[in-house]
Amino acid sequence: MIHEKIFRAQGKKLISLVIPCYNEQEVIGETLDRLAQLCKTLHDYAFEIVCVDDGSRDKTYELLCAAAETMPDLRIVKFSRNFGHQIAVTAGIDAAGGDAIVLIDADLQDPPEIVSQMIAKWEEGFDVIYGVRTSRAGESAFKQVSARGFYRFLNTLSEVPIPLDTGDFRLMSRPVVEVLKSMPERHRFVRGMVAWIGFKQTALPYERAERFAGESKYPLRKMVRFAMDGILSFSTKPLRLAVGLGLTSAALAMLGIAYALALRIFSSVWVEGWTALMIAVLFMGGVQLLSLGIIGEYIGRIYSEVKRRPLYIVDEKVGFAGPAMLPRKARAKSFAPSEHR
Ligand code: UDP
Ligand code: MG
Q: In angstroms, rounded to a whole number, what is the distance separating the alpha carbons of residues 231 and 150?
């Protein structure tokens, strides 16, 4: 890419800040300001800011385009519709050209100032520096408790240890990014995928701030889907649950048979029991449907994987022609599928 060559010519390492944005018109201006300030303080590096507009229905994209007029290092990828946070992050990673990539939310919950500490760790030789939330200001008790519980539960299931209480706020070196880009899976749980990749990883504790403005874009429905993606992408243990449930109910049935026979032989009464029968039938029905449902979840995922559709569709790209010296209006309308296919 042209802009990379220019930065390299200056002998500076390029850091890409990747920001997924979905209906963030209340905060995006402030976020860009704070990031621009950060870039100014770190003279030894060159920066690019890659914003992915994930099909926002408000003025986010217009605000981003207006900012791009004055910020030569701002690049924008606009999706054709809302594809979801994890896919937006993926598109940002695909589009970023930096020696290191930092994923950061648009709502200033991840303090941009922490990025300088991440860069320092990267210079020490770490490949992944992930932020660990020591506290979560301004989030509902339900969200805090469910998140804590979820990460611990996920770790008991997952075949790779996934760091507790992390989000996507992290710095990744180019080698890690290249591996991540080669992972084409659709149901993406980026924080887990990065843990799976390995290399030298370290934690950086930070206090998660309150959302600067606007509302969370993660309603319960999206949170549940995200949690399912985490569990089903990183574990096949739920499939084994069917075996466990089957064995348990078979054992219960054996006990029941032994009990009924013993009664019949030693006291010559039959076990009476419409109630017992109904309980047994309903229990077995429940166990079978639950097992089927779990299998169905995995099959659904196999189905969407084999369709091999592109992960996302780009509507417009702004600012990829290079820094300020090239005309800013050069907007490429492209329907090129993602690099994953
Ligand atoms: N986001 C996105 N697409 C979505 C939902 C969220 O790109 O469908 C972005 C959002 O703009 C923000 C980040 O993902 O930058 C995290 O979302 P949010 O702050 O709403 O989640 P929370 O912090 O409440 O978990
Ligand atoms: Mg947030």
A: 9
Q: Which ligand 1 atom is at minimum distance from the Cα of 88?
A: 7
Does 166 contact ligand 1 (Cβ within 6 A)? no
Q: Comparing C-alpha atoms, which of 168, 182, 188 is closest to residue 229? A: 188
pLDDT at 152: 86
Q: Strand 13-21 and strand 45-53: pairing?
A: parallel
Residue 267 CB coordination number (10 Å):
8
Which ligand minimizes its atom distance to the CA of 221?
A: 1
Kind and range of the H or E run holding 137: none
Longest CA–CA span in the chain (Å) reads 98
Are the C-beta atoms of residues 68 and 322 closer than 8 Å to each other? no
| DSSP β-ladder status, 100-103 and 166-173 | antiparallel
Q: Could you give the CA distance from residue 24 to residue 32 in angstroms, rounded to a whole number?
A: 12
Q: Say what the pLDDT of residue 223 is.
A: 82
Residue 120 to residue 280: CA distance in whole angstroms: 62
Pocket test for ligand 1, best of 105, 108, 169, 311 (most atoms within 8 A of CB): 105
DSSP state string for 34-101:
HHHHHHHH-TTEEEEEEEEE-S-SSSHHHHHHHHHHH-TTEEEEEESS---HHHHHHHHHHH---SEE
What is the predicted pLDDT for the residue at 61?
94
Q: What is the pLDDT of residue 120?
A: 93
- The DSSP code for 331 is P
Q: Is the CB of 199 under 6 A from ligand 1?
A: no
Q: Is the CB of 312 under 6 A from ligand 1?
A: no
With beta carbons less than 8 A apart as the criterion, state whether 233 and 189 touch.
yes
**213 CA distance to ligand 1 middle (Å):** 12
Q: Look up residue 81 and give its two tokens.
A: 């519709």
Predicted confidence at residue 9, as pLDDT, reads: 47
pLDDT for the residue 10: 67
Residue ranges for the chain with pLDDT beneath 70: 1-10, 322-341
